[in-house]
Amino acid sequence: xxxxxxVGKLYRIGELAIAANVSKRTIDYYTKIGILTPERSESNxxxxxxxxxxxxxxxxxxxxxxxxxxxxxxxxxLYYTSSVEKEKLLKYAQVLSKRxxxxxxxxxxxxxxxxxxxxEEQKSIINRMSPQSMALAQSLIILFN
Length: 145
Fold this sequence. Notes:
Elements: E1 10-11, H1 13-20, H2 24-32, E2 39-40, E3 46-49, H3 51-64, H4 69-79, H5 83-116, H6 119-128, H7 131-144
Antiparallel strand pairs: 1-3, 2-3
Helix pairs in contact: 1-2, 3-4, 5-7
């Protein structure tokens, strides 16, 4: 698809910067790392579609939540996936939700046993857990309390 085939308003970098309230330098950087994808004219000028404004607002929201740019890029990629891929993602999210329910049930079962251990034994178990497992366990405990 050429730049003339894009439906809707096209923005040059300066126009996009004003419309999205960001600097041209920020747009250049996001383009360089693949967060924004411009169309190129025959004279190699970059033109950004209206979806770029939405993308920049999404980036801003993610940055407010202290999300790293690598995660923001991944989130934006998922945001713009096709409906078929979105259906797969929805099914996967449902599978993850079921797994979380099972983990919650298991944690409820073992929590009294963990509470019965002395501090040294608890530390020993914690030291064997990966940081990701530990974060997940802490999140589940917070949900229970």
